[in-house]
């Protein structure tokens, strides 16, 4: 969001900031009852003066209720959201970011005549800490809300009576305890092209101030009426909105006339949320257009005045607050010009662009206000969590990652406690990562060619058995250092086999527009686990013992197994049989050898993770040895790394907007070096947490940048294998680094090992600086599907081969150099997609005739080439077609070898191959 300035310039200036909201829900239902738990986390980044009450909140309970329904009745108890009518008085949005919740009970009835709700609620007060939200002190909302069934002609009525009490209410007439009764009626509906929504509300009660009680006598009238011409282009809708909300005519007459909308939606008039519906008269003509089936826009003008001259201008978001210096004087507030465009990408993904300009009137200027610009872009960055299966698997992986961190803390601590050897502690880490180096590519190949659901069930079941065995052996005091290394190795084998499949299923669980957000959410989940997992592990080991930590890990694998079991996967349809393991492995390596962007990712990975491993290898040795610390301190420092990573994730969007991705990776590498040197040179309990924060920032920056580059550098058919190569290089660097730095520390000291690793990180970062990964997100690697099937005069079996394909071009002499340049690029594509031989020859007898040829190992392998061609590859072929000067398209011929009884035939047709 961007304001220039905030609050019309009265106590605020230019401000631009970002808001993030994450909600995760779990619902259990049986017969006529339901239980729901929803956790929410809200973040703000960059707001001048820090976040407001409705901007930011740590992880907390958003909703937690039990609902019983039957025979047209329902009862709902607990923390819940409560939105009614057109959200003018009761809404689920407390502000631009945080949703409004209530603690209490609702009883409802629904029948032929309509619906009736009784409520006794207390608004939840948002607080900045984790799990510290609670009901607002001294506040309550008691009421009844009724809605009639739809009548003939399309109209309905809402009737309601609400009693609201709060402390600390602030009006121009005074501040104190507010007790307000609200009686309202709403008439709304649609009939043909006409729609309407009209509401009348009156309020009574009292405001207790120091000088005495003020009687509340307030009211509002609001209407929104429009007519749509559905048969015309763009389906225009002309609308007219009008609002009158009472103000206080005389602050000294013992009465309060200012209307209070209680809990209105934050975007009452527009997303700018500048004016509140109190002491206000406004008129808003609007024009809505449907630019596309999924794109709508609305343009509007709001003319605004104070309803009472003596009262103030009131602003949002809640709670209602008077703008200082705006009481008395002029009545005209100003004119707001606004537009809002929405693109509904699909049923779970929406983009919004809001623009508003306020031409400040005399009532604002007398308070020091000025013209205001507002701009906001909202997208569904968290929308993948709305997809039930993605959300379930994401939460299960999050729990499993937390369990893995708990297990790692316990294993490292047990080894350090029983041996005191830096080399043995490093060996535990390497036992986790070495299997990834050995098995990742095979795992990626399997993930691309077998049913991923069954494959994940096997891997999760394996890790559940290993985790359970570790816990049992620890409980029986049979876990020797050698056995711990062996079990850690077995756990690493399961993780190595599961990693590529877990990364690859993201594209199956979410639609293509959500893929980038889903990948980012996976990174956030990893770092949430990194933030709290080590701390949880340290607490469990310190308070309960290692056996409980290993048992906790086993339970998380059981949860993952349960979720994957419930996944109803739709296998990818293909007319071709699945690749064999050997052929798939060879295809993955062949693709990687020809994919420059992927190679850049792998080179940068090797240049970072080898040196980054020094932190993981040396931290437990430094804490237990040099610092004489305990498991709790070790867990806290690891938790600081995770916190730094989460903080870095919040900063990354701004950093990526300002910095080249390769420069960002270099800066993060230098930050890593600084953190390694910091661990070597200081033992201060105040400085080390800051060092760990820097390390976490470096980790998330590099990890996220490289992972996104790896995801976007390859097409879907080889993605799991490409990710496996990335994971393999990542883990090889960690394993080799862990052993190297552990061995160096054993021979010299941990401090010297850390300083050497820091120097190596600086040198390595500078050496790979020119290896570019930026730009991979701009590639279009979706299947082009433009190659027609070959026209066969004889049947050809899939295993028959080799297959020789020739393409004949006619090229002018002036275009020869451009043709050869495009051909070199096409040759890389041919070899990458399966050609074992490729070349171009020129007819020396007939100038201008060029013949491209390539060989595939079998007919089936050539058919796979048809499926592998991408949209970017198609552009290269179209450029070659544009250079072709023949009367017809380039002639393509297929020659098939083998030992079939049928004669080998030359099959030819005109194609874009």
Automatic annotation (TrEMBL):
Chaperone is among the record's keywords: no
UniProt domain Major facilitator superfamily (MFS) profile: residue ranges: 389-776
GO MF annotation list: transmembrane transporter activity
Location within or outside the cell: Cell membrane
Keywords attached to this entry: Cell membrane, Membrane, Transmembrane, Transmembrane helix, Transport
Transmembrane segments: 393-416, 422-443, 455-476, 482-506, 547-567, 600-619, 631-651, 663-681, 687-710, 722-746, 752-769
Membrane topology: Multi-pass membrane protein
Keyword Lipid metabolism set for record: no
PROSITE patterns xrefs: MFS (PS50850)
Leader peptide range in chain numbering: none
Gene Ontology CC annotation, any one: plasma membrane
Recorded superkingdom: Eukaryota
Protein name, UniProt field: Major facilitator superfamily (MFS) profile domain-containing protein
């Amino acid at each position: 969001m961007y304001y220039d300035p905030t609050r019309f310039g009265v106590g605020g200036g230019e401000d631009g900031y970002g808001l993030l909201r994450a909600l995760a829900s779990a619902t259990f239902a049986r017969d006529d009852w339901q239980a729901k738990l929803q956790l929410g986390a809200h973040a703000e980044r960059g707001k001048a003066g820090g976040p407001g009450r409705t901007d930011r909140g740590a992880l907390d309970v958003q909703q937690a209720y039990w609902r019983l329904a039957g025979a047209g009745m329902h009862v709902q108890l607990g923390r819940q959201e409560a939105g009614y009518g057109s959200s003018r008085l009761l809404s689920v949005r407390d502000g631009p970011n945080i949703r409004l919740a209530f603690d209490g009970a609702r009883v409802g009835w629904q029948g032929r005549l309509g619906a009736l709700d009784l409520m006794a609620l207390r608004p939840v007060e948002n607080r900045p800490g984790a799990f510290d939200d609670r009901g607002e002190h001294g506040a309550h909302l008691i009421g009844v809300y009724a809605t009639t069934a739809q009548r003939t002609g399309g109209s309905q009525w809402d009737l309601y009576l609400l009693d609201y009490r709060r402390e600390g209410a602030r009006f121009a007439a005074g501040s104190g305890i507010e007790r307000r009764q609200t009686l309202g009626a709403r008439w709304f509906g649609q009939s043909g092209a006409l729609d309407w929504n009209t509401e009348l509300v009156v309020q009574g009660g009292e405001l207790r101030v120091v000088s005495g009680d003020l009687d509340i006598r307030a009211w509002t009238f609001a209407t929104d009426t429009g007519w749509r011409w559905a048969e015309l282009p763009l389906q225009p809708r002309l609308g007219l909105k009008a609002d009158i909300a009472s103000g206080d005519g005389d602050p000294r007459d013992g009465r309060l006339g200012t209307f209070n909308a209680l809990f209105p939606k934050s975007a009452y008039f527009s997303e700018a949320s500048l004016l509140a519906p109190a002491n206000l008269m406004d008129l808003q003509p609007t024009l809505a257009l449907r630019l596309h089936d999924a794109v709508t826009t609305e343009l509007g003008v709001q003319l605004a005045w104070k309803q009472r001259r003596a009262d103030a201008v009131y602003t949002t978001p809640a709670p209602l607050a008077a703008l200082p210096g705006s009481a008395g004087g002029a009545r005209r507030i100003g004119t707001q010009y606004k537009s809002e465009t929405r693109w509904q990408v699909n049923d779970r993904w929406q983009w919004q662009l809001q623009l508003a300009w306020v031409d400040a009137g005399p009532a604002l200027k007398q308070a020091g206000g000025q013209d205001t610009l507002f701009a906001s872009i909202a997208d569904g960055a968290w929308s993948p969590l709305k997809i039930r299966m993605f959300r379930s698997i994401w939460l299960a992986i999050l729990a499993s990652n937390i369990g893995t961190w708990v297990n790692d803390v316990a294993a490292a601590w047990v080894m350090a406690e029983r041996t005191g050897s830096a080399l043995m502690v490093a060996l535990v880490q390497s036992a986790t990562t070495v299997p990834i180096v050995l098995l990742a590519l095979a795992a990626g190949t399997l993930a691309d060619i077998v049913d991923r659901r069954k494959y994940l069930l096997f891997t999760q079941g394996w890790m559940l058995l290993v985790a359970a065995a570790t816990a049992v052996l620890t409980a029986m005091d049979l876990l020797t250092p050698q056995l711990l290394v062996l079990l850690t190795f077995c756990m690493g084998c399961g993780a190595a086999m599961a990693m590529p499949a877990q990364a690859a299923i993201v594209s199956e669980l979410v639609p293509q527009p959500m893929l980038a957000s889903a990948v980012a959410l996976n990174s956030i989940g990893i770092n949430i686990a990194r933030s709290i997992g080590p701390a949880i592990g340290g607490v469990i080991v310190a308070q309960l013992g290692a056996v409980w930590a290993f048992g906790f890990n086993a339970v998380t694998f059981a949860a993952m197994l349960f979720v994957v079991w419930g996944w109803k996967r739709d296998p990818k349809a293909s007319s071709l049989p699945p690749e064999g393991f050997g052929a798939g492995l060879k295809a993955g390596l062949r693709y990687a050898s020809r994919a420059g962007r992927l190679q850049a990712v792998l080179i940068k990975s090797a240049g970072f993770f080898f040196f980054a491993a020094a932190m993981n290898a040396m931290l437990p040795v430094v804490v237990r040895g040099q610092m004489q610390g305990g498991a709790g301190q070790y867990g806290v420092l690891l938790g600081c790394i995770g916190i730094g990573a989460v903080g870095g994730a919040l900063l990354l969007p701004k950093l990526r907007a300002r910095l080249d991705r390769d420069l960002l990776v270099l800066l993060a590498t230098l930050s890593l070096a600084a953190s390694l040197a910091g661990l070597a040179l200081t033992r201060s309990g105040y400085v080390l947490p800051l060092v760990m924060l820097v390390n976490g920032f470096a980790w998330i920056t590099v990890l996220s940048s490289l992972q996104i580059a790896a995801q976007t550098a390859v097409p879907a058919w080889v993605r799991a294998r490409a990710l496996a190569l990335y994971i393999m290089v990542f883990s090889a660097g960690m394993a080799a680094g862990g052993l190297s730095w552990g061995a160096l520390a054993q021979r010299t000291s941990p401090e010297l090992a850390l300083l050497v690793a820091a120097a190596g990180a600086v040198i390595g970062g500078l050496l790979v600086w020119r290896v570019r990964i930026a730009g991979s997100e701009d590639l279009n690697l979706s299947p082009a599907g433009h190659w027609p099937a070959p026209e066969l005069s004889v049947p050809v079996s899939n295993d028959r081969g080799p297959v020789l394909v020739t393409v004949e071009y006619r090229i002018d002499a002036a275009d020869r150099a451009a043709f050869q340049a495009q051909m070199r690029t096409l040759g890389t594509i041919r070899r990458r997609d399966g050609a074992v031989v490729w070349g171009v020859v020129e007819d020396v007898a007939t100038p201008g005739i060029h013949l491209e040829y390539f060989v595939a190992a079998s007919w089936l392998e050539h058919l796979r080439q048809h499926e592998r061609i991408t949209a970017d590859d198609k552009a290269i072929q179209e450029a070659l077609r544009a250079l072709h000067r023949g009367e017809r398209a380039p002639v393509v011929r297929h020659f098939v070898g083998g030992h079939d009884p049928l004669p080998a035939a030359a099959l030819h047709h005109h194609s874009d191959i």
